[in-house]
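In the previous lecture we treated proteins in isolation. Real proteins rarely work alone, and many bind small molecules. This record shows how such a complex is specified: first the sequence, then the SMILES for pyridoxal-5'-phosphate.
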Amino acid sequence: MNERAPTAATAEIVAELVRSELRALSAYAVARAEGMIKLDAMENPYALPAAVAARLGDALARVPINRYPDGAAEDAKRALRQALAIPDAHGLLLGNGSDELIQLIASTLARPGATMLIPEPSFVMYRMSALNTGLRVAGVSLNGDFSLNLQAMLDAIEREHPALVFLAYPNNPTGNLFAASEVEAILRATPGLVVVDEAYYAFAEASFLSRVGEFRNLLVLRTLSKVGMAGIRLGYAVAPRDWIDELNKLRPPYNVNAFTQAAIGALLADTAWIAEQAAAIRAERARLQAAMARLPGVQVYPTQTNFIVARFSKGNDIFEGLKAKRILIKNLDGWHPLLARCLRITVGTPSENDMLLSALAELTDRP
Ligand SMILES: Cc1ncc(COP(=O)(O)O)c(C=O)c1O
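The predicted 3D structure, ligand included, written as tokens:
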């Protein structure tokens, strides 16, 4: 049986029917990493502590998988509220990763002619969600030091009246935390919803979570992905209930599967392990930053995330050299003019970081 036989005919009908802006894109590429030291995807490098893993195993074994999950994910939400001190007064929405929530938020606000405002470079899924939903994008370049260009943002707000602004706080892929006063200025000036995306909250010195409700247009987005639980795909949005009620209408009914819902209770029954692993990552981050700053031809940028961005005089060579040594990081060169020769390195375990540093020392020393 030839399963791919009608290729020519299929290509024709695909070309005719699929949206042209989608055909021009490539699918989000996840690099293959078998056998490599994986420092490319902002994952937490540590395994679950044994006691937490045992609790998880018990909880998952009891999941009745013949049934659909609880559509409202009530138990999971209760566990999340308790573990993260999210007040009952605020609305809470769970997603299949925060990626799904980004998509949902964009869909909800994509009235004809509506605009999304984003600083750039920022998280790539914001632009992708605009493309998917037909939102216009107004992109405002960051300053050379990756800080917000506040005046340009305020001018764009005045000009574009955005229905939606995404601010990654701290920002990916640059790693820095924007000034809180500038985020506040954007919240006050924007007529639309401002999403403060705190994917890296565990590694940052500031948060807007406690300020939900203070602004009528603030939604804080978070994820468990960077704190050791990327595999369960759980993102959450916290905002005044009026916003969450509307977003909830577009949410697919069973978007958080039964295993993930059961896992949340088991994983968050105590959160000390999360704080301990995050502290270990922050300590390793400081060690890596200091060691990298001593290398020739390397400019290390400030970070409040679990990754480090640095500009290398030999950016692509370093990336390829590390790959040849079976160390996978992210090459940001070509993503945006501000990121020329920049590489993004996720903080690993101490031994992974040692291997990275000795590889970097060798590669940056080469003529
Ligand atoms: C700023 C930011 N927001 C959201 C996400 C998506 O996270 P999730 O794994 O919850 O989909 C990422 C992932 O890299 C991110 O950097």
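Summary for your notes: DSSP finds 13 helices and 13 strands in the chain. The pocket of pyridoxal-5'-phosphate is lined by residues 42, 97-99, 123, 168, 172, 197, 199, 223, 225, 230, 235 (CB under 6 Å).
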